[in-house]
Specification:
The chain is mostly beta strands. The chain is built from no helices and 6 strands. Bound molecules: zinc ion. The site of zinc ion has 6 residues, from loops.
Amino acid sequence: MIAIGNDELGPEAGESIACDKCGYTHPIEFGTSRTLKDDGTWTESHPSKLVGFYRCGGQLYLASLNGRLV
Ligand SMILES: [Zn+2]
């Protein structure tokens, strides 16, 4: 579990992120989210900008939260 205050988030996340580990730019991969409906079933997955990741050197790093860079 991680906790980051709203004032610690950076600018709005775009489609890519400048990597501070290798100096290149990587595409940000956004996840999907589903919503539990009243009847107990889940909606179809839809793209969500809640959490974004990028890959560098075979590792997966957190790029953004709630559409903003971390
Ligand atoms: Zn990198």
